[in-house]
Every structure is written in C-alpha cells, then in structure tokens.
Known about the structure:
Layout: E1 2-4, E2 14-18, H1 22-35, E3 41-45, H2 48-57, E4 62-66, H3 77-87, E5 92-97, H4 102-111, E6 115-118, H5 123-136, E7 155-156, E8 159-160, H6 164-176, E9 183-186, H7 193-202, E10 211-215, H8 221-229, E11 230-231, E12 243-244, H9 246-249, E13 254-258, H10 265-277, E14 279-280, E15 289-290, E16 294-299, H11 303-308, H12 314-320, E17 323-326, H13 337-352, E18 355-359, H14 361-369, H15 375-389, E19 392-395, H16 397-403, H17 405-409, H18 429-443, H19 448-455, H20 459-475
Parallel strand pairs: 2-3, 2-4, 4-5, 5-6, 9-16, 9-17, 10-13, 13-16, 18-19
Antiparallel strand pairs: 1-3, 7-8, 11-12, 14-15
Helix pairs in contact: 1-5, 2-3, 3-4, 10-12, 13-15, 14-16, 18-19
Amino acid sequence: MTMTSGSDNALCGQLLLIDADAACARQTGSTLREALLVAPRVTHSAGGRAAADLLRKTRFDVIIADLDSLGDLSPSSEDAMQRLVRLAQGALILAVAGTGSVSAALGAMRAGAHDYVAKPVSGPVLVGRLAELAQRHGRPRSLGVEAEPNPVVTDFAGFVGASSAMQFLYEQIGRVATSSAPVFITGESGTGKDVCAEALHSKGPRAGNRFVAINCAAIPRDLMESELFGVVRGAFTGAHDDRKGAAELADGGTLFLDEVGEMDLSLQSKLLRFLQTGMISRVGETAARKVDVRVICATNRNPMQMIADRQFREDLFYRLHVLPIHLPPLRQRPSDVMILTRHFLARYAREEHKTFAGITQDAAQHLTAADWPGNVRQLQNLVRRLVVMFDGGEITAAMIEAADIESKVAPAQVPVEAPRADRRSILPMWQQEQRIIEDAIATFGGNISMAAAALEISPSTIYRKRQSWSDMAVAG
Length: 476
C-alpha cells in the first residue's frame, strides 16, 4: 500500500512507515501531509519482513518504525532494527515505542536508530522530531523543513554553546531528566559533568528536593563509606554524633557521584546493593533505612577500560549505565569557542568592573585553533586571567599569549626531539579512523547511536565503515 501526498512536483523525499495498525498508519500519514512544508512520498508497510523487501528495492530518506510491528522480522526488536539499519542505506530512522517500552527504544537506538518517540504519537512531536533529525544530520531538504529551522539554543541550564553536538546534548538532557533511571555521564575533565548532573536534577520532577554531590576522588577511602551512607555515634574514633550520609541527605532528590570509578571495590559492592534494594545502613548500624534517590554518576575515564583493569565492577557499571550521556570535548566543537569566550568575558568583566571592547580577529583565530586539553574549564580560566591581568580595551593575540600559562608549561614536559627508534610509527588513515570509532563505541558500552552522536556522524556511517574494515580483513 502506498500513500502519496501531493503531486509529483511537490514530493520531497521518500518516507517508509512501518506499522501493523493500518488506522494508525493512516493517521500518521495525514499528520505528515498536513504539517510538513513539502510532504514526502509515504510508503506504508505492515511488518518488518515487507519493509526489508522494500528496502532491498527502494532507497528511502526516512524510516518511521513501530517496534511492535517488527516481530515477523525477529522476536527481538533490537535485532530487527539492526537488520533494517543494514538495509537502510543511511536513511534517518525514527523508532516508535509504547510508553512502557523505554528499554526497547534504547535497544533500537543501540541497533542504529537515530531517535525514538513514545506512543501515543503526537503530530507536532513527530514532525518536530523529524525536523530535528533532518537538521542535525544535514538533510533538511529531504523533509522540506529548511524554511522553518529549529531555534538554536546557546544557553541551557548552565551550558553555553550552539554547535550541533550541544543542541543534541540539550535535547538529550531534556528527555532524560524526566526519568528516575540512573544516568552515567562520561566526558573529559573540564567538559561540565557536574553542570550536566545539576541540569538533569533541575529539569526533572525532583527539582524541588535536594541535589547532593559527592566527589569520590576527593574523599579518603576510609571515610568514603560514612560520607556516602552516614555513621552512628561511637562507630569509630571521632564519630561523636549520629550523622546522615549523602544518600540519606538526598532522599527524595538526586545523588551525584562524581568520579565514581575512584570508589574502592569493597564499597562498590555496597553501592550495588543500595541500587538494587534502595536500602542503606549507616556505618556501625545494623538496621536498614529506605532511601528514594535518583543516582547520577560521572567519570572522565573509559569505564570499559576500568572494568578490564578490575578497577570497576562490571555488574555495578551495567546497573548505573542505564541512560548514558557523553559530553563532547571542546576541540570537537570549535564553533562554540568564541560563544564561550564572549560569555565568560562579559561575566568576569562585570565582576571586576572593567570594560572590554571585544576580540580581534587574530585573537579569535588563536582561540579557535587551540586544542583545549582542559576543555571549557581551561578556556574559562584563561578568560578570567585576561580580565584580571588587563584593564580593558580589545583582546589581542598578544594578550592571550601572555595569559595562556598552560600552553607555556606543556611543551617543557615533552622532548623537542625524540630518538628515531622511540618514535611511534604512523598508522594509515583508515586504521587511525578505526581506532577513534572503536574507542568511542567502547566508551558507550557498545551503543553505536551514542558513539555516533559524540563523533557527530551518522550511526549508518559507523556500520558502513565497520563493514569495509571487515572486508579488508577478509581480503588480507
């Protein structure tokens, strides 16, 4: 069955709609016909097998797939989605899942779907999500949405940035915040993992209750358990009073465990038990207390590597790694550097009662070209130093060089000329690309959609490259 909207001259792209419910499919087609600026050709398939046959013959720009309708292709919706992704030839894929099927939706995204919407599907939500996907993946013309682009958000819950990576992050935070499931934040030092945790709290239903943060790397190991779960009087020397721990203080709110990978393995087992039961016992106490908290954790290390090195429990990782969020490093979003610079310049100039006229072009090029190993925190410190060191006027490249202490220190730690025998051999470009992509996939525990978002490429690109690497290995 093919439902075509408008005349042939008005068609804009090919859309495959997979839904076993014919009435629901008609409603979706009607919604698209009424809401999109230039309606695409909509082809309806009642099941996964029929859809797979169509994908072998026809190339589609967009696929909207009801996960409950893919059962004839595979009993596992994730496996069925994986099969569709292989046949999709780079199409944008939107999964549709029942309100109680969040795990199925996340599985579909692991398999390569670009996003998902929950049933019942709202017309504006569906069209808006399709528009977001088209804009994010550089294909607005395939849906005729370029005339009404989504507004670019430059300031969101403590974050500053307008790049596509940050737009995706803002959307992800907004969606994840409404859940009570654990969140696992990864990202390099200085990318704003604490800001992300507070944003998830402030945007969610627990915003009216406490947000309690604990840095697992900053507390001595012998005190960590009492800091997390509390202590009763006399439990050890110095315990003069009963004291609540971070988990109990956050009851009804959010508990943020920063640098969770630094937690001692014995305490990790107690944290796992707390996550499984919702019960805690203060140090020196036998009675258990019920605590209701949402747990958010973060690390700047590769969790899969920590597991391999036996520094992090695998069962704890999978208990925490329900809703992963990755914060992109600043070097991967150079378009945000000047937005952040101006933001910090205005902020600190106001605090120091100074006036700056702006930033010269040479200075802007210097800032944008930098690698920023310390990410946003490094840039923030540099701008604050500039404001303190200089009285005002226009920021020049010479002023930046004078204030950029980190860049001056770093070269001294690296030999200018390494012996020829110690130099690393240079890998071919495809092998370097393979290493980058596989590292990103490992960082997200095998979630290809999240890895693709962090790398700012399409999941289908990763599948295509993996296939080419496999073919090369076979040929070799």
